[in-house]
Amino acid sequence: MAEAAGPPLRSALPPPPHPPGQPEEVQLTAPLMGTPHFLLVSPTFLSYFDNPSSAKTGGIVSSFSAGATVGAFGCALIADRFGRIWGFFTGACVVILGCALQTGAVNIAMLIVGRTITGLGAGQLTAVLPVYLSEVAPPSIRGMLGGLQMVGIMGAIFIASAASYAFETYYTNNWMWRGPLFVQVIPCSILVCIVFFLPESPRWLVSKGREDQAMKVLTRLHSNQGMDFVRGEFQEIKDQVEAEKVEYKPGWAEIFKRPSWRKRIILVCLLQWTVQFSGINCIQYYTATIYENLGFSTHESLTLSLIYAGLGLVFTCCIIPFIDKFGRRPLLIGCTALMSAALLVQAVLSQHYNGQANPNPNALRAQVAMFYVFDIGFVATGALAWLIPAELLPLSIRGKGNSLSVAHNNIAGLVVAQFAPVALDAVGFKIFYLFVACDLASIVLYVLFYPETKKLTLEQIDVLFGDQLVPHVLAEPQAAKNESVREEHFKEDGSV
């Protein structure tokens, strides 16, 4: 198939980096999650580790997600106790250690240990960041600032793809695979150097009785909203924290006993499963295999993946300003519908044109284009998957709840990573019909159960779940002056 489709498809791609005679017939296997794509494509990697078996490859792939699932609870254990900034610092240090072990790995066991440690730190960082962003951002731009996490993710994917492409192009020794692993150290090293210059979360400071510091942070960050807004926001946070301290003892068991909290936990964890089963991880983890099935060589696959990552970063930067303009629900519903349509077209084209002796080059191009269309939809839903949990969860359980959310994200991603290659081998592109069905089911869930949180303060969002303990200064200034803590705090109606 590759030869039949070759010239029309390859004319716009750069020539292969290796001169004739050097190995390029590399079997495409599942790339490493949490590392540059196509690492396992490297011939020097496969040779150095003696062509690891599928069992060993599975261990390498899954070790990162296993570590990240456990590491996510660092948000509750470290960031809740010592502050969000210490959550960043310790997470970044753990990632650096793990990446160093990966870069210097001399055997499979050392590589797996390094990836597990990297996952521990990455899981903590991805749990703490959305909590921090939601707590420091004013409600008018919280969606856009929360979307910066997705910009970072897509930027990392682009850098990983670029690093893989560059080292594959210019190196033929073990730096072809060690180099991309080492690149992971750079952003975390920068974070370690600058993290203590970042302001601490004002909500965390108030919860620890450090009100003067919290007021200084709010003034520094939100003074452009006016000092009346800053004073009102501070009072709202303080009233809510004091009321929660009287009413709640937010242990792990309490999270699931209180109906409104249980509902929020179910919503944020379910969101992670719907996003992971949108089809994105099958595409991102196994683009090498997918492009191979479409008839592209290893180098062409690297080039297409670099283009895919670059466009993803551009799409993300273009979409996140609209999160606050259009709201969370419309973007979730509309972009999930776009993803479903793109995968449906991809599956239909594959079913009719793949496997032919002389496949239609335009059909192959259209299939690649559908991945890019899918990416437009995903960057919005992906950003909201990090933003919404931190918004929906109350301060008392925000660290614990977001730890559970990120843990579910990694578990769901691990499930997709494990079954996708088997499904691709067994049924080919028909697997995309499953993801189309999952996307359609997700739309129904978003319509029925997910509230709109656009431009509400985190304290005002509590009202949506019947958890308002005090009148909110910014929404109800007169009530905040005259009313005491409400006697009825929650709807004990047995609902989820």
Protein architecture, described:
This protein is mainly alpha-helical and 496 residues long. Helices cover 73% and strands 0% of the residues. The protein contains 24 helices and no strands. The chain has helices at residues 2-10, 43-48, 54-71, 74-82, 84-103, 108-136, 142-146, 148-170, 175-183, 185-194, 202-207, 211-222, 227-247, 252-257, 259-285, 287-293, 298-319, 323-326, 328-353, 361-392, 398-427, 431-449, 458-464, 477-482. Helix 17 crosses helix 20 (361-392). It is globular.
Give me a quick take on this structure.
By secondary structure, this protein is mainly α. Helix content is 73%, strand content 0%.
Sum up the structure in keywords.
mainly alpha, 24 helices, 73% helix
Helix and strand topology:
Layout: H1 2-10, H2 43-48, H3 54-71, H4 74-82, H5 84-103, H6 108-136, H7 142-146, H8 148-170, H9 175-183, H10 185-194, H11 202-207, H12 211-222, H13 227-247, H14 252-257, H15 259-285, H16 287-293, H17 298-319, H18 323-326, H19 328-353, H20 361-392, H21 398-427, H22 431-449, H23 458-464, H24 477-482
